[in-house]
Write a structure and sequence with these properties.
This protein has 8 helices and 14 strands. It is of the alpha/beta class. It folds into 2 domains: 202 residues, Alpha-Beta Complex (DHBP synthase); 78 residues, no CATH class. The strands form 2 sheets. Strands 7-1-2-6-3-5-4-8-9-10 form a 10-stranded mixed β-sheet, with helices on both faces. A 4-stranded parallel β-sheet has the order 11-14-12-13. Bound molecules: threonylcarbamoyladenylate and magnesium ion.
């Protein structure tokens, strides 16, 4: 990315503006987390309920100590998975300079160091923690390309920084470390097995989407404008079939070779491409296996299938 774009992004952020930034998971709608008014603009632009807290993005592991209390589990996991798609929910420090709006009044804070080089450059230039939810209208399909951001938020953003297609394609794993047992609040590409290998037993709230522990895991989320149906071997009526592996009749295929990482990277862009009420009355999605990152894919599909 050219140096002037990075400098401009940092300048806008420090002045309290909104910048859409690329990350390896999805595009984020970023604001300086220490400025309450800037953070309020995020909620306003997205139409996001203010009880749903935001993730704070940091430029290094050493930034965390100013904001939250860490423990050995954090040290070991961050050493392996940062920078990357793992968000930690940690107890907020009393002197934490991050706006109360970011954590929606909770005594905890969600923190992540993104792996995308442009996100890192912007954090380094701004030298501020950045609150950044996905850069889309609340409840709709998350953006994995700069064009998705422009289509969804348009002139509500001061700058959209184009960093190409998001490599991972679904949002970070959210891991709650505020209690004695680590809990996955939102499944992502860093899986339960990945985490258990490092710190032992981890519980998961994701197995029961009806009982969300993370305020952001609202039932209606990721929803296209046409109905979406999961575990569909074939299309019915004027549905578009979204395949996985060998799927005869598929209009698009998440991964013809059955690769779950490729499927995650394609998920949101393909749902967007098939969300075309003039051509299709719905989207039927072929079964995606419930293993590894397939859990996160099915989690997003379940929410999308519940509609708006
Ligand atoms: O990959 C990602 O995480 C992307 C990119 C831009 O980094 N960001 C993202 O942010 O997905 P958002 O705001 O769409 O999702 C944040 C999630 C929500 O489910 C929210 O409820 C949860 O994290 N969260 C944030 N702070 C929390 C807290 N203190 N306690 C529990 N959950 C929290
Ligand atoms: Mg989101």
């Amino acid at each position: 990315m050219s140096a002037p774009v990075i400098a401009r992004a940092a300048e806008i952020l420090r002045a309290g503006g909104l910048v859409a930034i690329p990350t390896e998971t999805v595009y984020g709608l970023a604001a300086d987390a220490t400025q309450g008014r800037a953070v309020a603009r995020i909620f306003e632009a997205k139409g996001r309920p203010s009880f749903n807290p935001l993730i704070v993005h940091v430029g290094g592991r050493d930034w965390v100590a100013d904001f939250a209390r860490t423990d050995e589990r954090f040290d070991r996991l961050a050493h392996i998975f940062w920078p990357g798609p793992l968000t930690f929910v940690l107890p907020r420090r009393a002197a934490c300079p991050v706006s109360e709006l970011v954590s929606a009044g909770l005594p905890s804070l969600a923190l992540r160091m993104p792996a995308h080089p442009i996100a890192q450059e912007i954090l380094a230039a701004a030298q501020r923690p950045l609150a950044a939810p996905s850069a889309n209208i609340s409840g709709t399909v998350s953006p994995t390309e700069a064009a998705h951001v422009t289509a969804s938020l348009g002139d509500k953003v001061d700058l959209v920084v184009d960093g190409g297609r998001a490599r991972v394609g679904i949002e970070s794993t959210v891991l709650d470390l505020t209690g004695p047992v680590a809990a996955i609040l939102r499944p992502g590409s860093v899986t339960q097995e990945d985490i258990e290998r490092v710190i032992g037993d981890v519980t998961t709230a994701a197995a029961d989407p009806a009982a969300p522990k993370s305020p952001g895991q609202l039932a209606s989320h990721y929803a296209p404008s046409v109905p979406l149906r999961m575990n569909a071997p074939h299309a019915e009526g004027r549905e578009a079939l979204l395949g996985f592996g060998k799927t005869p009749g598929a209009i698009l295929n998440l991964s013809p070779g059955g690769d779950l990482k490729e499927a995650a990277a394609n998920l949101f862009a393909m749902i967007r491409a098939l969300d075309d009420p003039a051509r299709y009355q719905g989207i039927a999605v072929a079964p995606v296996p419930l293993v590894g990152i397939g859990l996160a894919i099915n989690d997003r599909l379940e929410r999308a299938a519940r509609g708006r």
